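user: At home tonight, take the chain set out below, taking as long as you need, and be ready to discuss the fold:
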Amino acid sequence: MAAKQINPLTKTALEIGPIIVFFAAYLLLKDRVFTIAGTEYEGFILVTAGFIPLMLACTGILWKLTGHLSPMQIVTAVLIVVFGGLSVWLNDERFFKMKPTLIYLLFGCALGIGLLRGESWLRKVMEGLMPLQDEGWMILTRRVCALFFALAVLNEIIWRTMSTETWVYFKTFGLTAAIFAFFMTQNGLFKEYALEKDDAA
């Protein structure tokens, strides 16, 4: 079933809103330590605990409004619950920091499997946004696959070698900027392999 169209601002708010709230809450609580049931929790852990239900609520609202969730949204929600929950339960921020690595590895591997089968699984997700010739989709899929693996490696380097605050800035702004910059650099490919309106129809 095709997704229902909703206001783009509403969609953006539901997708990006929880991340912005996480960032703002972290800045507010990053230097504080909370004692709950005799256990001390740093602000990062408390913010993570609040982020999980907020993200699930926004994902649920998005599903209610559109009647559809992409595989990426579903997998992301599951990993947030699992690794965010482990961070809170074990009082260990490392699990939550690993989450982006696993997300990018999973989708990089998924695209790679499709490529080995001679298919562009990226096309199934994005075809409505930018109609391309078959060759264009294969080229773009190879590049996006490489991007996901590169981002997975970069996330590992950042969280393992730098401070939590640096990682939060990277997670909030760096990853988004990297993906945006990547697609901006693909403009030549989009022009070369774009389908004419008649062909797309």
